Amino acid sequence: MGKTRPTDSDPTQEQQAALLTESGNAPTVDNEAQLLADVFGEPDANGVYGAIADGSAA
Questions:
Q1: Are 11 and 18 in contact (CB under 8 A)?
Q2: Pair 50, 40: CB distance under 8 Å
Q3: What is the pTM assigned to this prediction?
Q4: Residue-level pLDDT at 31
């Protein structure tokens, strides 16, 4: 997993900038795209899995 959440209640501007650019987010498994497609179908043109075809809210 990524880094632990910061607990500083008053971070400096530099600390805030680092948090915005270093998320540590990445797929948790090597075949994440295939797993998502298996569950929700192929992604739409925007790369969204399981999107509602007409774009309306469910």
A1: no
A2: yes
A3: 0.47
A4: 93
